[in-house]
């Protein structure tokens, strides 16, 4: 038996104290050891009068609030179900796409619009102007002359034709 904010009672099976119709409406994301859920504001408001009641109900059901970008690639709030007390962090079952997490630097050998001529890893290359901020400054020797240059380091580099 579960009471909605408007006072009507729902007589349906529950999942760890949460109504089954509520559990059916949230999004689940599998992780390595357990799963995380995302509950929209509209669904929360339909079943709970305020965020405090919702939070207490989720904690009693065994969920812990987490704000992370490791699950979907965007910084968002999730509720993680702790099956055991020794869960060592939030890791998605399969990693999110590279573009959401790591920067890519676009380089070209030819002069193109929007690209700057820079010394990158001891070569004169054209780097997309917005991507210069990802590079690290480093002194290089290019054509026998010491110049202020950049290094890509461990960044993903995309060479354009």
Structure commentary:
- By secondary structure, the protein is an alpha+beta fold.
- It folds into two domains: 6-96, no CATH class; 102-160, no CATH class.
- Helices cover 16% and strands 40% of the residues.
- It is built from four helices and 14 strands.
- The chain has helices at 20-23, 41-47, 51-60, 98-101, and strands at 2-3, 9-10, 14-15, 18-19, 27-30, 35-38, 63-68, 76-81, 104-108, 115-120, 123-128, 136-142, 145-151, 156-160.
- It has a four-stranded antiparallel β-sheet with strand order 5-6-8-7, covered by helices on one side. A four-stranded mixed β-sheet has the order 10-11-9-14, with no helix packed on it.
- A hairpin with a 5-residue loop joins strand 1 (2-3) and strand 2.
- The relative contact order is 0.12.
SSE blueprint and pairings:
Blueprint: E1 2-3, E2 9-10, E3 14-15, E4 18-19, H1 20-23, E5 27-30, E6 35-38, H2 41-47, H3 51-60, E7 63-68, E8 76-81, H4 98-101, E9 104-108, E10 115-120, E11 123-128, E12 136-142, E13 145-151, E14 156-160
Parallel strand pairs: 9-14
Antiparallel strand pairs: 1-2, 3-4, 5-6, 6-8, 7-8, 9-11, 10-11, 12-13
